[in-house]
Amino acid sequence: MRSFGELVAEADAEPTEGWDFSWFEGRATEARPSWGYQRSMAERMAVASAALDIQTGGGEVLAGIAKRPPLCVATEAWPPNVAKATALLHPLGTVVVADPQEPPLPFADGAFDLVVSRHPVRAYFDEIARVLRPGGTYFAQHVGPASVFELIEFFLGPQSEESRNSRHPDRERAEAEAAGLEIVDVRTERLRMEFFDIGAVVYFLRKVIWMVPGFTSERYLPQLRELHERITTDGPFVAHSSRTLFEARKA
Predict the structure, then answer these.
(1) Scanning 38, 59, 83, 150, which has its CA 20 to 30 A from the CA of 20?
(2) End-to-end alpha-carbon separation of the chain, Å?
């Protein structure tokens, strides 16, 4: 069995660009939502004429679909991900635009008949509605309320109810309707996650940077040591992610 120091050092050295989570194989697991986001998104992409993928990450999800519309654009804010997505998506005929996560989107009104996003930091529904054509669709998988809070609270302590409910689907539904979108489908599932070693925890918190803001293994060394001992003694650390399927249509 590898030591605490070896596991942490390995996780600290691993690059974090993109949304490829294959490094976790054998080290952590997460159940998948029943609706199959990539498959469902691909079905909508196949019949669209102009589509936008917001916050595409490294472009891995968009690259994994069989058919893209004649006009396909992706946005991304983090420079390392912009470079990775460009290398992956340009050969597939998809333009990648470096764009901040905050509005406005750098596109004209009514530019797209389909807007998609997987795990946006925040959905700015006014902007989504603006760039959609009448009858156009927003289809996304959002991070739901209190996602992975077992891990967050291990490092940061108890969180407020406001923090726990900041991504509640009822709140997002109201924001979408206020922007003039008609709700087609909203549903949330909680999904079991297991971390089998402390390296998986370190890499997860380095990659998903909003979980524990400012996380470094040096800063949280005492908590990491405690969690390592807990995993070694009791087995995998269990948490639960929260995912919301969100589909809306512009009237």
Answers:
(1) 150
(2) 58
Spatial distance between the Cα atoms of 19 and 56, rounded to a whole number of angstroms: 9
Instruction: Choose among 197, 189, 174: nearest CA to 245.
Output: 189
CA pair distance 72, 227, nearest whole angstrom: 44
Identify the DSSP state of 164. Answer: H
Span 4-250: which CATH code?
Answer: 3.40.50.150
Residue 122 has what DSSP assignment? Answer: -
Over residues 55-99, the pLDDT tens digits come to: 999 999 999 999 999 999 999 999 999 999 999 999 999 999 999
Domain ranges of the chain: 4-250
Say if pTM beats, i.e. exceeds, 0.90: yes
Give per-residue pLDDT as tens, 154-201: 999 999 999 999 899 999 999 999 999 999 999 999 999 999 999 999
Q: CB neighbours of 27 closer than 8 A, spacing ≥ 6?
A: 195, 196, 197, 199, 200
112-145 core/surface letters (b: 16 or more CB in 10 A; e: else): bbbbbbbbbeebbbebbbbbbeeebbbbbbbbbb
d(CA 50, CA 229): 51
